[in-house]
Amino acid sequence: MIGLFGGTFDPVHFGHLRVALDVVQHLSLTQLRLLPLAAAVHRRQPIASPEQRMAMLQMAIRDEPLLVADDRELSRGGLSYTVDTLGAFRDELGAEVPLCLLVGADAFEGLPDWHRPLDILELVHLIVMQRPGAPRARDPWLRDQVEQRRIDEPAALRRRAGGHIYFQTVTQLDISATRIRRLLAQGLSPRYLLPEAVLSMAVDNGWYSVGDSVPRSTP
Ligand code: ATP
Predict the structure, then answer these.
(1) Is the confidence at residue 219, as pLDDT, over 50?
(2) Phi and psi torsions of 51, nearest 5°
(3) Which of 22, 25, 74, 214 has its CA 20 to 30 A from that of 65?
(4) Ligand 1 centroid distance, CA of 150 (Å)
(5) In this structure, is residue 164 part of a structural domain?
């Protein structure tokens, strides 16, 4: 079973990497594709370019064969709609292969505002990564979807191509790319929040230079 994990990865950090591995191991995924998005739909635009974010991601996962960087959203360009990406995976892998889309609990709460949320729920299983005992779904539509689709037994994910929602407790690391960019912009070190090789790559190339923590453009 393959997993998909999208994000800006601006830059990738241990928060992303540890939860990715938590889910890979817990669900025995054969592979987890990490997909940097080209242009964000619901948030500020990335600081680092697509090529730079991809290079940092590849560096971060070079020793972990179960994690694979996937550049399809970057090559497609434009706004990255999750439903389009999932459609492309379905075209490539067929309708029968179980697929899991990993989302953070915050992102999951915003699902009703995504483009074609119901299609997303049908195309793949949603793996919601959360803290233990976190409240689930305040939005009434989403709460209803959780009631209909929730499963608690990971084995059930393999019996269908998509359509289930599974809540996965993951390691809590209070790390964000925003904080890393802010530290760098202030001339402070974000060491130990992200892989050393990724930090060196970003610093040596001046990708997040002092005073550069704000986005260059918005959509
Ligand atoms: P930014 O601070 O720029 O908003 P970010 O650190 O949240 O970035 P993203 O690339 O936007 O990183 O995140 C992609 C996905 O990774 C999202 O689903 C998000 O919920 C999840 N994620 C990010 N940081 C963590 C973390 N520390 N622990 C668990 N999940 C995380």
Answers:
(1) no
(2) -65, -40
(3) 74
(4) 23
(5) yes
CB 75, CB 88: distance < 8 Å: no
Tens of pLDDT, residues 89-135: 999 999 999 999 999 998 999 999 999 999 999 999 999 999 777 66
137: confidence class by pLDDT, cuts 50, 70, 90: confident
Q: Which of 12, 176, 179, 208 to mutate to test the pocket of ligand 1 (most atoms within 8 A of CB)?
A: 176
Taken in order 61, 62, 63, 64, is the CA torsion positive or negative? positive
Q: Ligand 1 centroid vs 15 CA: distance in angstroms?
A: 7
CA of 7 to the centre of ligand 1 (A): 7
Does 193 map to a domain? no
pTM, two decimals, is 0.92
Kindly list the strands in the beta sheet with 165-169, ordered across the sheet, starting from the edge strand earlier in the chain. 67-69, 31-36, 2-7, 99-104, 125-130, 165-169
Is residue 185 included in any domain, yes or no?
no
Output the CA 19–ligand 1 centroid distance in Å: 10
Count of structural domains within the chain: 1
pLDDT-derived band of residue 73, with 50, 70 and 90 as boundaries?
confident
Ligand 1 first shell, C-beta below 6 A: 7-10, 15-16, 19, 103-104, 106-107, 129, 173, 175-178
Residue 216 has pLDDT above 70, yes or no: no
